[in-house]
Amino acid sequence: MKSKICGISDSKTLKFLTDHPSSPEFIGFIVNYPKSKRYVKIKKLKDLLKINKKNCLYVAVLVKPDQKILEQINHLPFDYYQIYDCEPDEIKKIKKKYNKKIITAFSIQNLDDVKKHTLYNDVTDIYLFDSKGYEKSMSFNHSLIKDIKLNKEIMLAGNIQIDDRLENYKEIADIIDISGGVETSGLKDISKIEIFLRKIKQINNET
Q1: Domain ranges in the chain?
Q2: Is the pTM of this model over 0.90?
Q3: What average pLDDT does this structure show over 17-34?
């Protein structure tokens, strides 16, 4: 099982993650969604991303990005663009122009939301099934995606907590995406991140 820690906005936490012996495969940054308390302005983002990613992959989290923000981040060391609220043809143009791998994010409330994934097969490298919460930590019914069979990796987000039985998520996803679950009072908590990374390592050692 792979992991992603999302909503990183300070250098101390980022260095802890990139230096960690069991670092997450993916680290996410909120690039263009000011409603989120985890949003990082472009100037700060440029400084933050000077930190060597080492074994991690950097992910730009984008909600319906416009041309301006895409140009601003074009030369930053992102490996993936995680995109919400774009049609397949929009993502196709972004993927082609900027030569990035794509995590297509689906906000799930019902089965119809899940079925939309079929429209994005040609443009998606990883499918992310998330709640409708965006900046809020909300859950969705994971049984909605339990029977999906895809030839690409599935990432799971939406109010995942460090005291969940994380091993159970292996049945439905390849990658666990956590954000609020490793925070205290809205800020990333190193001790909670440590617990999460240890649990993921333990799960992988047992399989």
Answers
A1: 2-206
A2: yes
A3: 97
